[in-house]
Structure formats: C-alpha cells, structure tokens
C-alpha cells in the first residue's frame, strides 16, 4: 500500500483522483474507486498503474472481464508488469480461460522463476485443465518457495486426491491447518479422507473442526452426519437438520425420512 508520504507526493503531482481511488478502495468502496481511477486515466492515459488499480477495483465488484481488460492495458503499457500478469492470470481463471491463465503465469515465471504466486496460479490453471502431474509440480515448487502458504498445501492436497494418493493428500491438508489452524475447508477435506478410509470417529473430529471455524460450512455438517451415523452415534440427525437449514436438499430428505426429533 501507499504511505502517507507517498499519497502527499501524489497530491502534489495533481494525482488527486488516483489517491482518492486508492482511499476508496481501502474502505471497500470499489464502485467509487473505479470512478476516480477512470478520472485519473483521462488525465494520464499512458499510466500503467492507473489501469492496474482500476482492474483491482473491478475485480472486487466483481466485474472480471473489465478487470481483465484493465490488466491487459497495463501490460500493453508495461510488458514486464509482473503483478498485472499475475492478476490477469487470476481473472482468466474466473473467466474459465484456463490456458490463458497458465500462459500469463508462465510469463511471470520467465521474468522471476522464484515467484511463488505465479507457480501457484499455473498450478491452479493446470489443475482446471486436468493436467494433474503438472499441477503437482507447480504447487510443489510454490511450496518450496513459500512453505508457510496454506493455500499451496491445500491445492496440492486436492491434486493428490485426483492422483488417488489419499495419505499424501491428508498430509498436505494437515500442513495447511498447521500453518493456518482456522482453515475450515482443509479440516473438511481431512474429514472426507478419513470417511473414505472408514475412519469415522476421526472423520467426525475433522468435520467438527471445520464447523468450529466456519459454522456455515454446510458440507461439513453433511459429512459429519454420515460419519456419525456410520459410527453409531445417534446425534447425527441434528447435523442433517443443520445441513438442511444451510440449503442441502439431500439432507432435508434424509432428515425427513430418518429422523424424529
């Protein structure tokens, strides 16, 4: 972010619209930020940073195509703008343009081979393209660069599931929660693995952790209900009821058919 000195200097350079846009972005007024960044672009249409920042604002609204267009304009003005390539790679993913997402990540890797985010994004793109071996290599490289990044461990765990390496997947999810204990989705994935292996008590424990850190995690309630039922725990109906209330129709039917609370 910008320091107060940076913002003051920008004001002196008559970049007040740009500064206002940054301030509005920081207080989550993304529509207002777009208006100010657009005014800044009218004054200086060759400033790559203005398009980049407006792209960030569009991405938060979210208007992914407009964000993609702005990141592209920033890149056209500054071809080695690595952050813009990374952000555009992310927009490509949301727009389901996975090959383009991989391509942008590769440009960044060509400029900086130790850019963990670029390796991670290329892994996400390769995973979406079902290139599981390439995705595994990408996430492994990202982890080697930033071993404390929970998302990289989580994503590699998802790849390991597709490769049918459940124990290795569990290790990756465990590392994700080691780095980020309140990572609800990682606890949930650990619960799913224990359930697949028939370890229902352990599965209940993991699902309970997922619920502890996100009480709206409907899938964790669903999974815990099935694991409780398979473990002979008669309290499973309350989890079916909770999952039903969170919108899982299968749990509503199961609750109606099996439970009499």
Brief rundown of the structure:
This protein has 261 residues and is mainly alpha-helical.
What descriptors fit this protein?
16 helices, 77% helix, single chain, 261 residues, mainly alpha
List strands and helices in order, with pairings.
Elements lengths: L3 H9 L3 H11 L3 H14 L4 H13 L3 H14 L4 H13 L3 H14 L4 H13 L3 H14 L4 H13 L3 H14 L4 H13 L3 H14 L4 H13 L5 H10 L3 H10 L3
Helix pairs in contact: 2-3, 2-4, 3-4, 4-5, 5-6, 6-7, 6-8, 7-8, 8-9, 9-10, 10-11, 11-12, 12-13, 12-14, 13-14, 14-15, 15-16
What would you note in describing this structure?
This protein has 261 residues and is mainly α. α2 packs antiparallel against α3. It contains 16 helices and no strands. It starts with a helix and ends with a helix.
The percent of residues in helical segments reads over 70%
Shape: globular
Tell me the major beta sheet: none
Any idea what the radius of gyration is? 23 Å
Strand content: under 5%
Give start-end ranges of low-pLDDT stretches: none
User: Helical segment tally?
Assistant: 16
Structural class: mainly alpha
Average predicted confidence as pLDDT: 92
Number of strands: 0
Question: What is the end-to-end distance?
Answer: 53 Å
N to C succession of SSEs: HHHHHHHHHHHHHHHH
Assembly state: single chain
């Amino acid at each position: 972010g910008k320091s107060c000195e940076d913002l003051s200097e920008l004001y002196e350079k008559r970049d007040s619209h740009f500064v206002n846009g940054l301030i509005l972005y920081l207080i989550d007024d993304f529509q207002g930020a777009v208006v100010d960044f657009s005014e800044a672009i009218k004054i200086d249409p060759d400033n790559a940073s203005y398009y980049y920042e407006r792209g960030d604002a569009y991405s938060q609204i979210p208007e992914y195509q407009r964000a993609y267009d702005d990141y592209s304009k920033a890149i056209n003005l500054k071809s080695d703008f690595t952050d813009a390539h990374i952000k555009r790679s992310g927009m490509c993913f949301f727009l389901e343009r996975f090959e383009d997402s991989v391509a942008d990540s590769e440009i960044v890797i060509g400029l900086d081979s130790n850019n963990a985010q670029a390796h991670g994004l290329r892994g996400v793109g390769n995973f979406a393209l079902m290139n599981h071996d390439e995705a595994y290599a990408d996430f492994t490289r990202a982890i080697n660069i930033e071993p404390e990044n929970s998302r990289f461990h989580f994503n590699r765990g998802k790849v390991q599931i597709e490769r049918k390496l459940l124990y290795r997947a569990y290790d990756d999810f465990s590392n994700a929660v080691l780095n980020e204990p309140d990572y609800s989705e990682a606890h949930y994935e650990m619960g799913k693995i224990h359930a697949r292996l028939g370890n229902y008590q352990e599965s209940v424990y993991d699902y309970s952790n997922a619920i502890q850190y996100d009480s709206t995690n409907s899938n964790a309630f669903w999974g815990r209900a099935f694991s409780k039922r398979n473990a002979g725990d008669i309290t499973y109906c309350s989890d079916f009821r909770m999952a039903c209330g969170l919108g899982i129709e299968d749990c509503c039917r199961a609750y109606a058919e099996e439970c009499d609370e």
